[in-house]
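I hope you will forgive my troubling you with a question about protein structure. I set the record out below, with my sincere thanks for your time.
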Amino acid sequence: MAKVYLGLGTNLGDKEQNLHSAILYIEKQIGTVVSLSAFYNSEPWGFESVNGFLNAVLCVETDLLPLDLLHQTKQIEVCMGRTAKSSDGIYSDRIMDIDLLLYDALIMETPQLVLPHPLMNQRVFVMEPLAQIAPDLKHPVLHSTMAELLKKIS
């Protein structure tokens, strides 16, 4: 059973309901949610939009392997109405975005998936909720805790 941290973000529609719906899908298709952060408001990151984001991080225990987990998160995004994933670093408004942040202490780099998430430690909207639920968790590459990484960017 792997312990996985997922970042959730939404900036369209009923944002709070979108997060609750994503959590239900995750419990149904991925595994048991063992912890969930508070919901955080944030500004768009990497693009301009009048729509602010609502973000959360959760920890889920799953039997899925990393690429199977990635496939399931993409399916959930599509089920919730997401039409296109960001490409070439170009972001846009979205009903739901689910990012794989950490998969146990796994370090992995494939064309489909990089773990840990390569930008997580630069994003307050990821690190604040992550540090809330796992302050002492160590980043497998940076060897700092989530609380220490948050201090560096906030």
